[in-house]
Specification:
single chain; 232 residues; alpha+beta; 4-stranded antiparallel sheet
Length: 232
């Protein structure tokens, strides 16, 4: 069973601003977290702005496969808020979509590979290569399960992503490669199945990560699993 936070513990993770408790950020947030949870596990320890600045940039990454990804939208976390004893959990929101087609790919494309980057001081740092055999809208819903209240029950990937967004308060860029054109329908005993995403998104993610490791000698900041194909 996961650890259930008390009201006092939630408040300890916040600053009081105008009678509303707002989740801390940066080093202050990590210090407050460390008093409740062990942050020894790098797989779920949130990354910081300094960690981002130590990453390779999208411009430095030489593999041409990055050119198949298109900019979709920006992502940023709304922090946890407590007002009049009512808690509103932290959540990553998508905004500033490039156009209607980008929104359609985000909402509907069944099988996508993705790149997450973060622009700081006029440099666009690579944060993560990933894939989803559902839509990215659904993938973002999974990330949003990584609220602090689910620290010991949510997946380490979801904790890592949402809590890092909270810690940094940065704006991230989302790029997608739509693999939905290769969805598969299986016919069995005269009946056709629903469309299933092809494994293409897995293959693209695997290649992107391996090319990154070959060039830079390490995985991207938020790719925490040892095997690229295990990173969701």
């Amino acid at each position: 069973m996961g650890k259930i936070l008390s009201s006092d513990q939630f408040i300890s993770l916040c600053d009081e601003i105008g009678g509303v408790y707002i989740q801390k950020s940066g080093v202050d947030y990590l210090e407050a977290l460390s008093k409740i949870f062990s942050l020894d596990n790098k797989n779920d320890k949130p990354f910081t702005l300094d960690d981002i600045k130590a990453q390779p940039t999208l411009n430095d990454f030489s593999f041409s496969g990055k050119d198949d990804f298109i900019f979709i939208c920006k992502l940023q976390a709304n922090p946890l808020e407590i007002k009049d004893s009512v808690r509103k959990n932290e959540k990553i929101l998508a905004f500033n979509f490039a156009d209607e087609n980008a929104k359609k790919i985000f909402d509907k494309a069944l099988g996508v590979a993705y790149i997450l980057t973060c622009e700081l001081e006029n440099k666009e740092y690579i944060i993560k290569f990933g894939q989803s055999r559902t839509t990215f809208k659904d993938r973002l819903g999974s990330y949003n399960c990584g609220v602090v209240n689910n620290w010991r029950t949510a997946s380490t990937t979801n904790i890592k992503m949402l809590q890092s967004f909270v810690t940094t308060r940065a704006i991230f860029n989302l790029y997608l490669y739509d693999c939905s054109d290769e969805a598969t329908i299986i016919e069995w005993r005269g009946e056709k199945s629903v469309p299933f995403a092809s494994p293409k998104s897995l293959a693209v993610e695997d290649i992107m990560i391996k090319k990154f490791i070959t060039q830079f000698g390490r995985k991207p900041l938020a790719n925490i699993q040892g095997d690229a194909t295990q990173v969701k």
